[in-house]
Amino acid sequence: MQHQQQHHQRVRRSTRTAGACLAAAAVAVAGVLVVPGLSGSAAGTGTGAAEGCETLTHPLGDATPYTEFVETHGVRGSESEGAIAYGGDLGANGMTVGTRLTSAASAPTLVVGGSHGQWFNLQRGSAWVVPRSGVNFNGGGSYLDANPLDITTAFTGLRALAARIAATPSTGTVLENTEISAQPSLVLRGTDPVLNVVRPTAAQLASGRNIGYDVPAGSTLLVVVDGAEVRVKGQVWVREGGGWQQANDSTMATRPGVLWSLAGATSVTIDVGSAWGGSILAPRAHVVVERAGHTIGQVLAARFSSGYETHQRLFSSSLCLPPLTPPTSAPPTSAPPTSTPPTSTPPTSTPPTSTPPTSAPPTSTPPTTAPPTTPPSGGTTDVTVTKSASATSVHGGERATYTLTARNLGSATATGVVVRDQLPAGVGLESASPGCSAVADVVTCQVGDLAAGAVHSVRLDVLVAPVAGAGRTPHPQAHHHLTPTKTEVHVDLEAGQTRSVTLSCPGGTVSDGAVRVDHVDQGTGTLADVHVLSAQSTGVETWKAVLRNDAAGRAQAKAFGVCLPGSTEPADRQTGHGDGHAHDLVADTALVTETRALAPGRHSTSLTCPEATMPVAPGHDLSGGAARLVASEPTATGWRLDVLVQEATTLTASVRCLRTATTAVQGHTHQLRTTHVERRVVVPAGTVVEEQVICPDDAKGVVATFDLPDDLVGLGHDPRLKTRAFRLLNPTGTPQEALLDLVCLHDRTEVETPGTDDPAELVNTATVTSTSTDVDFTNNSASATITVLPGSATLALPRAATRTGRSLELRVLSSLPGSAKVTVTARGTKGRVARGRVRLDPDRARASDVRLTKRGARLVRAGRADRLRVTVVPSRGRRARGTVVLDGS
Predict the structure, then answer these.
(1) pLDDT digits (tens, 9 = 90+) for 280-303
(2) Of 344, 494, 777, 862, which is most buried by a Cβ count within 10 Å?
(3) How would CATH label the architecture of 384-467+759-789?
(4) What dotted CATH number matches 485-564?
(5) CATH number for the domain whose boundaries are 795-888
(6) What CA–CA distance (Å, rounded) separates 452 from 409?
């Protein structure tokens, strides 16, 4: 979560905690609205909209970390990338939750107070559901013993916040023009770097105009809408870099402060031909997403119905509002909709229409076992951690420093704060800030109490292991086997349904993914009525597709993934190096992407991978409009994707880059071997055909490629590893020719390559915890990455050695296996003071067997040998020398 910084003097205001006002409504005190469960501070000076403003810390209260936060019931037909919480019933079937979370296993990321549908795939965190069943915990979580939320009380605070926002004066403008794609547009414009407030009318929003956000990046945009029934129709755009882009995950990443506030609405309908960007605060309304690519932001509503994905984009952790003057009229008093539960059968059709619900209060009651969700002292605590490295790249054998910074973004003191850092293989800890201790490779730093707004940093100094720049003579027959695998899942789609499906390759790399459309109920449509809106890698190990069925009947499809192994198989023993070693395959963690707004027509997008890598997992994501993928082809430097656009859309094209050499082990690497197979086929008029492309005998297909004419419809392809089976539909009256091809990975690597020119990437992740209740569990981890460059050094010496009696512990990092002779001298003396041997292991530092000579022991006791000159001579590779400080007794 991004914390919006305010550069104003702040004075703490008195507040009431949620635990102290379980059923209290917001009240006006001396002309200032006090919001239960929220805390704030008054700013004394400032300019523009923020002049004299009051900063509300975590303005959404307990809803802060939830992508979906619903007072009563919901009907869902697709994935949520974030955490979700429902006070009542949730009808869902096979719903995936939390794909973008990094939360701890104990975090309450799935909360359903009433009955729930069948089978949630919870990617991170734990769950409160009744009964305790139907959840697949894919991130190590478990069932919670008590409901962690008092949603009824939380919504008392949210309704008060919406009323407060409704009383905030407008600072921006609403313009009706044609500046977005020369189409009728509704531009929401503001220039203040902190707060912009606009008020479009319900009639303007229902007109079908393009809706554009034009405010400074990082500022807050409050879109205040009056009326009981609100329908938003059109496409959502963002002004960026002097031009307009349709809302997508990238454009909304710099705009976490977009909030639609509908204090008096009882019915809100979203009908947009693009992705929806912005959080929705409609605490009395039934929010229905009738049409959207997906929603980006939080949904806080009395009820929620959607067959579309909700993407994680949490609202800002602070909101600066002008002081409230006494209202001239009472805030809306209409109650939430009735809480009629859905039937026990999970939904199988389109989301319900937006018929306004009645105004009876919800039937759900506050859970009696829920603990207070704010600290007894008042306000909120929110600990977060950031992490940085002293350099983005170093040569092996050099040193680096990690800085871990814990912050309390809340308004109350956080207690028992602890920062932990799991050091990755490839670095060795040399020193740490006071209060930090290390066990194995885990560094634990006791921070203690952290006041509101306080910051505490710790420093970890590490020695980076060398990456072999030179190794032994290659063996002419040494190689390793590789075994790709396949994963698949069946997908059923009801008429009009949009559904997402996720595949994973645990411990490996997704090299390809595809959706094959198999069947549409007879007489209800064609295979071309099933559209793949998105098919892309979401992580090195994961892939996701989003499908929409526009037929009038039921459709069936299958989603397939190809998995590369995380490492090779052990080396063949007949090579003379039969120690069972293996090499890792490495794919870049970040995708190469490009996002473009596209008009109707055929468009090509090219992506480039760095040198010494190859593209895998080509992907596309379409936000709104109407388009389909017609080409996916390798190029000399990367990958090309073509889409045929019928209605303007925003395309995000992506590819992951796989290194063509394995990691270095025992001073050598292996190159991967690939072959590209092509085949041209002719599809007869009016037919559906299956055509196969076959790899050589010693290879498996890992990435499918194709180039189709505009009139030919691709229905997906099935990876059968040796072959790839493509389904093609020709709806025209003439034959159509297509190019089908396949990238094949050979079963064996090349023979050894001594040394390596391939850098190693070290990803280091830190976490922060506290004993106080943390209002946002989504921001408790952070990572820093160092790229280690190959160098001539094969050994790295520590700065200090530990002495116990006459034994010296000297932990040497090495890029080559074997052993080394160690000799030690002392400054100002002649002869050796210690000698011995050390075992060299490329995976970790080994303790040495080095002993002081009798003369060396006397010098040490006399204090004449506290700084030692160490020489390490390995059995192969270059010798290393360095000065080591002696520590011990």
Answers:
(1) 999 999 999 998 889 999 999 999
(2) 777
(3) Sandwich (2.60)
(4) 2.60.40.2080
(5) 2.60.40.10
(6) 7
